[in-house]
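Hi R.,

Here's the chain you asked about this morning:
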Amino acid sequence: MSPASTRSETRADSAPTPVTLSPFPPPALSGEQAADLRADLSESGWGVEAV
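And here is the predicted structure, written out as tokens:
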């Protein structure tokens, strides 16, 4: 008998961990900062198209 079949698994065991909301607001970028970041990522080969 395999170990997987001997273990009793419930739906709660396989459910994803709930996301805990952070007390901090998400980071915000100005349009200029976003454009600079996009350019830096593109130059390094990590542009939006690569994701």
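One quick note: The chain has three helices and no strands.

Cheers,
M.
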